[in-house]
Amino acid sequence: MDGGCKRAVVTAGPDVLAGRRVLFVMAVDAEYGPQLRARISPLMTGVGPVEAAVALTAALSGLQARGELPDLVVSLGSAGSRRLAQLGIYQVASLEYRDMDASALGFARGETPLLGLPVRVELPLRIPGIAAASLATGASIVSGAGYDAIAAEMVDMESFAVLRACQRFGLPLIGLRGISDGAEELAQLSDWTRYLHLVDERLAEAVDRLAEALERGELAL
């Protein structure tokens, strides 16, 4: 997500696609339109990296205790971009944490001190036929000149936190994002929500492509 809206109810467990347990992770109900509702039952985390980390870690801990960890996690929702096609669907090629800045201590901007992760973490899994782009996660809404300081092609507020939870549990991650805004300055909530019904339709098509790729054995899980 790259905006704010009412939080939805957290769901219980993964969906099954082509015999694989896939946990879809979304932020809020506004992004979960009728096309996605017809296909998946995601974990809803709330807005931002803190809420995403807390909700997903709790959910994965519960699934692990029951011996039901998913085969794959998918971070799904909207993103902002000033460079990519509006309403385009992109899978995440790499992730970075745009809030982290310990440069006063000699660390590169975006590098978490003493963690050992690079500034930009590559995601190796790719769904055939879906364009890939870099993504930067942070707790702020990006608009207008705010994009000047961001090297990544798109921004959201949850996916890096989802990545870190997946790394803790040894789970593979795919990110799918629909560009909902960024071409114009944001001034109100409706500037984000007005195209989410179209993002919903196109993300649903991407979920179908994911299911097809799993069925054909095109993703090495």
From TrEMBL:
Listed Pfam families: PNP_UDP_1
GO BP annotations, alphabetical order: nucleoside metabolic process
GO molecular function: catalytic activity
Record domain Nucleoside phosphorylase: where: 149-210
The protein's name: Adenosylhomocysteine nucleosidase
Species of origin: Paracoccus versutus (Thiobacillus versutus)
